[in-house]
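Would you mind giving me a polypeptide sequence along with per-residue structure tokens?
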Amino acid sequence: DSSNLALVAGALSLGIGFGLQNVVSNFVSGLILLAERPFKVGDWIVAGDVSGTVRKISVRATEIETFQRQSVILPNSNLINNAAGNWTHRNKLGRVEIKVGVAYGSDVKRVHAVLLDIARAHPMVLKNPEPFVLFANFGAAALEFEIRVFVADIMNSSVVQNDIRFAIFDIFEDERIEIPSTPRAMVETTKHEAWPIDDDKIEAEFAERQRLEEEAAAERERLAKMKRRGRKPDPG
């Protein structure tokens, strides 16, 4: 009858509504992204665990290419409802950090000066804002420093970090500044006697064990005979 038909139609409408909810949400989110433009094609963004360059923005999803050249399709609702960082939103200027530790006992003022010279010497490092070296912490195994520099294009951050680390390694070696290694746990091992490979030795050890077993058996037999006779065993 008509009441049952209306009930079925209502249930179908409800199911379709729930099914289309994500589609509509992504569509509306896509319109918001296209209107507000929090990022554009070519920007370097970070959304959750995904970091890469925006390749395409559609009304349903956004395509991001990671630095491993993997294409990741993110629903637009994820980008609207969750925090997303944009490294190149207004410009490509960005700060790069390089951490390094030196051994306790090092001349910290000399270390600071050497690191600052290394940072200033790199051609991609900006003069303004000028490089800065922070004496960051007294670590468990090292005195910790951090170089902070600004580059005109944050996409070159890996190149700058790589070059500065190579320079640190070379110049520290010349200046006799030690970079301590992480202490490794010492594992104590038990020395085992090498397995005998001399056949004569094996035979001699077998004969000795057999002799001891025979002596023990003879002693047990002697004690048993004395017990049957009712005598106390003689000592020795």
